[in-house]
Amino acid sequence: MPAKGKHRRPKSQRFTRSIAIAGTGGAALALPFMGATGAHAATPQSVSEKAVQSLPFSQKSAEKTAAKKDAAKTSTVRVYSVRAGDYLSKIADEQNVSGGWKKLYADNRSAIGDDPSLIHPGLKLSIGKKARTSTTKTESSASSSSKAKKTEKAESKSSSKSTAATQSSATTSSSGYTLPVTGATIGTGYRVAGSMWSSGYHTGVDFVVPTGTSLKAVAAGTVVSAGWGGAYGNQVVIKLNDGYYAQYAHLSQLSVSAGQTVTEGQQIGLSGATGNVTGPHLHFEIRTTPDYGSDVDPVAYLRSKGVAVG
C-alpha cells in the first residue's frame, strides 16, 4: 500500500504539471488567436475613424474652392487711364462695362465730379469698382426695372422728336449748310492777334452762347474725333463731305462719337466752358485737315455755302 501510494503520487504530480503545461500551452496558443481577432476587430474601427476624419477636410476643400471662385468674381477691378479723345460712353463700350457709361460714372463720380463729360487725359477710372449684386430679383424690382425701361424709351422718343424739331427749324441753305449754333452773336473774330493763343492769333470764331446750348453739324459728314482736346476742352471734329473739317471746342457735353455719320443740323453736343476759357462759348473752326494750324476763315467759308452769318 505505501509503495503503491508513493507510486501514485509522482504520477499525480506529473499529471498536475501536465495540466499546468497544457494550460500554459493553451494560454500560449490562445494569445495569437486573440491577437488575430483583435487585429481584425481594429481594422473596421480604423477605417471608420479615417472616414470621419476625412469629412471635415472635404468640406474645407469645397469651401476653399468656393471662396476662390467668389474671389475671382470680385477681383476684376481694373484701373483705366483716360487718353486724349476718350469720353465715358466710349470707355464703357471698349471696356465692356455692365451698365454702360452711367455705371462707370457712378463708380467714379468722386474723381470725375458733377459733370460726366468733363474727363481729361491721365484721369484714373476704376472699372468694375463695385461687386455685382445678386442676379435673383424680386417681382417688385423686376417691375421697377420694366417701368424704368418704358420711361427711358419714352424719354428717348421725346428727345428724338425734340431733336427733329430743332433740326427742322434750323437756318439752312439750298446747298445743305447751316450755322453751328442758332441765334448767337460772334465774340472774338478770326485772326484776331493775341499772346493768349499759341499761334499768335485766333484760329477760329467764338459764338457767345450760354452753357448747354445745342450745337449742330454745319453740313453732312463723318465724325473723326470726339473727346478731350487739351486747351480746347471737349471737342468734336467732323470731316464734311466737301473735304473740309469743322471743329467745335469747349463743349460741356458730347452727343456723337468718332466714326459716326451726321447730317446737316444734327446735334453734335452742348456748348460749355471746358479747357482754357474765360467763359462759356463755342469756338468754331474750319480746317483743311483735322489738325491744328490748317485753319481757314470760317465766316467766309459759311458765306460761300450760302449761310448768312450775323
UniProtKB/TrEMBL annotation:
SUPFAM superfamilies assigned: Duplicated hybrid motif (SSF51261)
InterPro entries linked: Cell_wall_metabolism_enzyme, Dup_hybrid_motif, LysM, LysM_dom_sf, M23ase_b-sheet_dom
Annotated Low complexity bias: 133-146, 159-175
Compositional bias (Basic and acidic residues): 149-158
Signal peptide: 1-41
Domain of life of the native organism: Bacteria
Domain LysM: 78-127
A single MF term (Gene Ontology): metalloendopeptidase activity
Keywords: Hydrolase, Signal
Database matches in Pfam families: Peptidase_M23
Disordered: annotated span: 123-175
Name used for this protein in its record: Murein DD-endopeptidase MepM/ murein hydrolase activator NlpD
Highest classification ranks of the organism: Bacteria, Bacillati, Actinomycetota, Actinomycetes, Kitasatosporales
